[in-house]
Amino acid sequence: MKTKIALLSGGISGEREVSINTGNQIFEALDKEKYEVFRYDPKIDLKKFIVDALDKKFDLVFPALHGPFGEDGKLQGLLDILGVPYLFSSCLASALAMDKYKTKIIAEKIGLDVAPSLKINKNNRYNLEKITNELSFPIVIKPIELGSSVGIAIAKNEEELNEGIKNAFTYDNNILLEKFINGRELTVTIVQDEQNTKALPVIEIIPKISGWFDYKAKYEIGGSDEICPAKIPNKTKEKVQKLAKKIFIEIGCKDLARADFIWEEGSDIIYFLEINTIPGMTKTSLAPKAAKADGMEFGEFLDKLISNALK
Q: 130-135 contacts: CB < 8 A, separation 24 or more?
């Protein structure tokens, strides 16, 4: 009998379009001889999905959702209540990983290097002079619970900082302000099965159409060069893979995640940036590229994830 999969994509976060693309790529790659796939967009199909889940219509939920209400633990909590098995991390791990500030606290506690940063809240006054005294320019501005570089800016002066903060607050009530680290961006996909936690080949990201790895550089064809495996010394490769596995395990991630780092120019310091519990799976996404470099075509990669989750 075919395995019945509920594929969720779309949703209501600022990453809706990315999620739709991810869902389309997964649907096309899933072997229809093996799987019966039911598609749901939580923005319009939530009631139908819940009814079908209670009726035990499917064996496994494949959440291809990014950002709030998909990747932040809220969906995972609902699935736990419904008693439905699902791919990727649990409610708590998803919530922790989604909060960039809390993840950085955990990462620093277990010995990873992180860039100096501050957290500010939309409902509290913030002082630009105090911020710039603590964090020298350039300063990276990030909504704390959003991905895909949505709402992110890099400020080189107070005017850009003020505008960037105002824009970021349109996406999230909490913002992370982080000292910009000039270096090479490295990302590591982690996969987990019953036997072990494995780091896939390291990818180096070199933006081509932007000064940094922003939304356009991530998702436009040719927006970035993604070198896989990264052309870095073995010592650096092994170190960043070890760090990725360490934060994956400490956060409590499951099945699959992708950790992002900056290797500072002229030093051996590798700064942890964040960990994504549901990495994108579009044509330009990084996790499928790392899996391919490890010898797995996309369909085979999905088979492995589903098989491990069902076990």
A: 131/161, 131/177, 132/158, 132/161, 135/177, 135/178, 135/179
- Establish whether 15 is a catalytic residue: yes
Where are the extended beta strands (E) located within 116-229?
117-121, 139-143, 153-155, 174-179, 183-192, 197-199, 203-207, 224-227
Q: Catalytic: 308?
A: no
Degrees to nearest 5, angle at CA 212 with 209 and 216: 50
Pick among 3.10.105.10, 3.30.450.40, 3.40.50.20, 1.50.10.20: CATH of 3-86? 3.40.50.20
- The DSSP call for residue 302 is H
CA distance 239 to 150: 29
- Domain 117-179 is found in CATH 3.40.50.300: no
Verify whether residue 148 is a known catalytic residue. yes
pLDDT in tens, 83-135: 999 999 999 999 999 999 999 999 999 999 999 999 998 888 788 888 888 88
Please determine, for residue 147, whether its predicted confidence score (pLDDT) is greater than 70. Answer: no
Looking at residue 195, its amino acid is Q
192 residue type, one letter: Q
CATH 3.30.470.20 fits 96-113+182-310, yes or no: yes
Read off the pTM.
Answer: 0.89
Active site residue 86: no
Q: Of 9, 10, 13, 15, which residue is the catalytic one?
A: 15
Residue 31 has pLDDT above 80, yes or no: yes
